[in-house]
Task: inverse folding
């Protein structure tokens, strides 16, 4: 498959991407929160619950994995990559190396990982990855985000994307506008517009082929400490930003959930989809909004695997419908039907 074909497959109608790429530190907190001791085996077993869920491919086009997970296998010895390939699900890999403080503006962060990236990309491609993910974070606050932070994050995202395409991998480009704090939806709209404008300028300057990338960014949302915006307001603000900043040649944008509840993430996606059609596909690339309930259902017990898989399939279906504008809260009662 060409880069363009892979990118289009990632945003196939009614399908989204499952983000199972938590770092070892992050997944440890989530496992321990549901009473599961953190170990390589418990992390492997949890990811196996997700990866082997029956019929997951009906609503999931790809799964983003962590370095450790990409190399792991099921309990009966099948490589995770092989399981995904057999199901028609694209294996992806998180390639950034986390965040560092920005010099001169310690409240803002830059993403690490460009050093040694070409060699890592080559290895990931050999293992079987088809796409990659790199996350930048944009903080909103007094005087934030700064122009310098937006510009440097955009440059690093563009260089990462260039290196991915050179290695034959589709880059998922993720500038996340954080929901933390009490900022207004207007401030979120401004920050989103600024980072996306800068990002596509830098992607063009780096010679990145836009038909072979996927954007992953935030909905335009007020800060978590602020009032909650209605799905219709979120949709109107988000679509306005996208129409202003996204090029028509972009295959698609997959939203991150960014701390929204399961139902919020689905309802807001649904409202956005109903404003289409658009030149680009709009879908989802959720982590917690797809798997948090499944993780607590599983809780490390073999006898709970089937129930946990049923939960993750339900959430994938709800968001698949939402990406088509066909979701309603009443459908949440359909679990198991």
Result:
């Amino acid at each position: 498959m060409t880069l363009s074909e892979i990118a289009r497959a990632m945003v196939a109608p009614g399908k989204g991407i499952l983000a199972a790429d938590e770092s070892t530190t992050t997944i440890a907190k989530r496992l321990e929160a549901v009473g599961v001791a953190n170990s390589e085996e418990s992390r492997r077993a949890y990811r196996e619950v997700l990866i082997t869920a029956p019929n997951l491919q009906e609503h999931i086009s790809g799964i983003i994995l962590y370095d450790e997970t990409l190399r792991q296998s099921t309990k009966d010895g099948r490589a995770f990559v092989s399981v995904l390939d057999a199901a028609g699900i694209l294996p992806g890999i998180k390639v950034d190396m986390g965040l560092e403080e920005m010099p001169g503006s310690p409240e803002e962060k830059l993403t690490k990982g460009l050093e040694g990236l070409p060699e890592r990309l080559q290895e990931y491609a050999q293992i079987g990855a088809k796409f990659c993910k790199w996350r930048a974070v944009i903080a909103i606050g007094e005087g934030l985000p700064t122009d310098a932070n937006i510009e440097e994050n955009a440059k690093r995202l563009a260089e990462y994307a260039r290196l991915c395409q050179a290695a034959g991998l589709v880059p998922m480009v993720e500038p996340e506008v954080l929901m933390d704090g009490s900022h207004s939806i207007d401030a979120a709209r401004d920050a989103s517009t600024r980072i996306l404008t800068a990002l596509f300028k830098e992607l063009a300057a780096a010679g990145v082929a836009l038909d072979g990338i996927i954007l992953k960014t935030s909905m335009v949302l007020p800060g978590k400490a602020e009032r909650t915006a209605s799905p219709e307001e979120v949709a109107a603000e988000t679509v306005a930003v996208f129409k202003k900043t996204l090029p028509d040649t972009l295959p698609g944008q997959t939203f991150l959930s960014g701390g929204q509840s399961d139902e919020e993430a689905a309802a807001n996606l649904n409202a956005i989809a109903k404003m289409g059609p658009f030149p680009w596909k709009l879908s989802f690339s959720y982590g917690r909004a797809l798997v948090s309930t499944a993780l607590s259902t599983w809780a490390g017990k073999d006898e709970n695997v089937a129930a946990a898989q049923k939960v993750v399939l339900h959430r994938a279906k709800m968001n698949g419908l939402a990406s088509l504008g066909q979701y309603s809260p009443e459908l949440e009662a359909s679990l198991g039907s």
Q: What stands out?
A: The two ends are 35 Å apart (CA to CA). Residues 185-205 form the longest helix (21 residues). The beta strands are 16-20, 60-65, 90-94, 99-102, 105-111, 131-138, 170-177, 214-215, 252-255, 281-286. The chain has a mean pLDDT of 97.
